[in-house]
Write a structure and sequence with these properties.
Blueprint lengths: L12 H9 L7 H11 L4 E4 L6 H12 L9 E4 L3 H14 L8 E4 L5 H9 L4 E4 L1 H9 L10 E4 L2 H6 L3 H9 L6 E6 L4 H10 L4 E4 L8 E8 L3 H15 L4 E4 L3 H13 L4 E4 L5 H12 L5 E4 L1 H4 L9 E4 L6 H8 L8 E8 L4 H6 L24 E6 L9 H9 L9 E6 L4 E6 L3 H10 L9 E3 L2
Parallel strand pairs: 1-6, 1-7, 2-4, 2-5, 3-4, 5-6, 8-13, 9-11, 9-12, 10-11, 12-13
Antiparallel strand pairs: 14-16, 14-17, 15-16
Length: 457
Amino acid sequence: MSTSDFSSLGLQAGLLKNLSTLGYEQMTPIQALSLPLILEGKDVIGQGKTGSGKTAAFGLGLLHKLNVKSYKIQSIVLCPTRELADQVASEIRKLARAIHNIKILTLCGGAPFGPQIGSLEHGAHIVVGTPGRIEEHLRKKTLKLDHVEMLVLDEADRMLDMGFQDAIDDIVEKIPSNRQTLLFSATYPQEIEDIAMRVMNNPAVVNAPSTHEASTIKQYFYQTNTDDERMNALRILLAKHKPDSALVFCNTKLDTQDVADELAHYGFYALAIHGDLDQRERDQALIRFSNKSVSVLVATDVAARGLDIDALDMVINFNLAHDPEIHVHRIGRTGRAGRSGIAATLYSDRETRKLDALEIDISTDELPSDTYLDKPIKKPAMTTLKIDGGKKQKLRPGDIVGGLTGKGGIPGDKIGKITVSSNWSYVAVESALVKPALKKIQSDKLKGRTFRVRILS
């Protein structure tokens, strides 16, 4: 018997038989790595992309433990969006076909509250839902989690992106501390490590091998001898590669602002960050860049410190770095997490000695054709809505998601990053749906109040 066979796990006979009828014979890498640990009762952090088979991994774990005779909530699965919660609940129901009288309930924002209360009154074994709506039920005391033995945080990185960290903390507080906690995430930023330390007990970390090669950064060097040539080269490179997110480095605050203004003049979606901006301008620029509603950020090295963008497609050195360490740090911001990245450096005749100091073997590349400048500029996938209300107005990410996805609203998977600050909130929405999203928030109330909302451009 192979160790990747489900039959090697000691699962309940009914679950195994059902797996066979579903055509599940061999475990995927994430299942083979995490399921034995899950069945042992250990806390597990699983890193794997969507489609890696993680739902079956935690789904089988919680079904194997379930006491179907007890009509108390024994497992809770938190998901970032209603669509994902529906998918997860549907997959668990499929895996649970052999278990009679099992009740799996979905509790998500954007759906009426009343029927959910009615369903909860009849009892359930497993709840799958979004943090905002689960938190709301807890606040209204329509949901009790005193008997939960298993908590699953699915797509945890996306939940944190959508601003659900406080909601997750509030939910975890209401669950017995002797539970088993499973966390699944496609990426593993610092915030995930922080939340794992707070809510998990000595977790085992498993990482499904990526089908991608290790990170690869392709470096290019282009000689440009005048300011006009340099600006032209920058435009050509952005027009050719069409990056979703590109970081352009300049050495002075003045150059940073000039380059961003010039790019915007030519129709690129570009913003600058540097020390002369006030905090609100800086925050807005970083929010729009990190939520993919602006594709080019022009920055000085100092302003880019602490900028944590996971998936940068491209880094362009508009000005050469002053020393080799800074150069390496700049280009190392692309090609992360198994992705490929492009790093382009522009330099002039006078800077060849500076290039030698970078200790890199360079061969000058030929600049792509300027015919790329005739092609339309790629519009960002997302657009940011700014809502004139935040933490001080008791506005939470869950309220924003609920407001956008309610009756006549937009699907939850079309919502991107949500940032709630003291007096403002920012939500990224797929650009094609920004008008209906704007209309929905303008015509409906959030938290029983009307808030002013506008498109940031």
